Amino acid sequence: MSHRLLCFGLLLGAAAPAAQALVEHKVEKKFAVPVAGAVLAVDTFTGAVTVTECDGNTIEITVTEQCDEPDEKAAAAKFADLDLAFNQDAAGHVAVTASYRQKVSFTWKKWPPVVLVFDIKVPLHCDANLTTGNGDITIGKLRGKLLTTNDSGKIFVGETDGTVTARSRTGEIGLTACTGMIEVTTLTGNISIGRALGGARLASDGGDIEVQQAGGDFRVNGNGSQVKVRFAYPLVQAANVMTSGGSIVAIFDQRSAAMVSASCAVLEKVVSRGLKSAGLPDGETRSRLTAKLNDGGPVVTLSASGGSVLLRGEPPGPEVDVVKAAPAKVDVAK
Predict the structure, then answer these.
(1) Which site among 194, 241, 269, 288 is 20 to 30 Å from 46 CA-CA?
(2) What angle is formed at CA 158 by the lines to CA 152 and CA 160, rounded to 5 degrees?
(3) Mean pLDDT score of the chain, rounded to an integer?
(4) Average pLDDT, stretch 48-70?
């Protein structure tokens, strides 16, 4: 860049108007909760929600209210239309709600006028029901029933001993590990799961789906989704993986005992790599394939109506403690 152009750019930067100031309020609440059976509910029209574990038997809530205005006087009218409420019922359950009285209309004005950020600490044993219109949801290591819902924004859950239900229209959903049933649904967002040893119901319209260790009663329903699943050893329950408009990569420990039924699109192929079993020659390609892995076992059904299927064997890894009891069936397509 020439010296003249550099000076001109600096002059333009100097002439640019200063960024609007951010007026910020903090609201803090603390609730004593039962030693067992702590429950948190958050329902907000917007805002990121972060929930992390802490010692003790309290739920500590910090809500940051933010408004793009130069000063308190200019922001007062916008803050006035915000309804933020905290409640604790007779059972000790804590609820936080946030709504905005101004209706959204076709206007040049920024929506929402007030942005919220929730930072919440809860006991390790706590159920959480978190709903936000637009914003990320992040949950740490909890032992409870977790339900998360948003329109847009990422959802992330760390290691949990409990169950997880996560739903998002356009956001990505990630989960490190769960010992209970996992139910995840997105319209366009990707789904990434670490360990799903208690079973899972995963569904996406257009987002990719990847699971690093799948166990229990495991089902995937993808529409235009690329799916990659590594099955935990040993396999103890049936699995069903389906996708249309995408392909499937299914990875097995070479010691796995199962019956595999794989099918794909007419012009695509089912390919086997590193799995030497009856009816499954290495490198075999065909549009439909049924094979017995080792001594046989649970049925693993793989169907890619618009793509290919790759069956891949890997050297033995660590054995994991998968859940053997079949959980109740849940239809995530609804």
Answers:
(1) 194
(2) 120
(3) 87
(4) 95
For the chain, report the end-to-end CA distance as a whole number of angstroms. Answer: 57
Contacts of 331 (CB under 8 A, 6+ apart): 201
d(CA 49, CA 32) in angstroms, rounded, equals 20
What is the residue whose two structure tokens read 């891949």?
312
Strands (E), 124-225: 126-134, 137-139, 145-152, 155-160, 163-168, 173-178, 182-186, 191-196, 200-205, 209-214, 218-223
Read off the amino acid at residue 208. D
Give the tens place of pLDDT for each residue, 61-109: 999 999 998 999 989 999 999 999 999 999 999 999 999 987 655 454 6
User: Cα(144)–Cα(157) distance, rounded to whole angstroms?
Assistant: 12
The per-residue pLDDT for range 259-273, each reduced to its tens digit, is 999 999 888 899 888
| Torsion angle, alpha carbons of 123, 127, 131, 135, to 10 | 40
* pLDDT of res. 227: 98
CA dist 260 and 238 (Å) reads 10
- Is residue 148 within 8 A of residue 155, CB to CB? The reply is yes
Task: Assess contact for 253 and 275: CB atoms under 8 A.
Answer: no
pTM metric for this prediction: 0.86
Cα→Cα distances 102→44, 54, 62, 76, 81, Å = 14, 36, 24, 14, 7
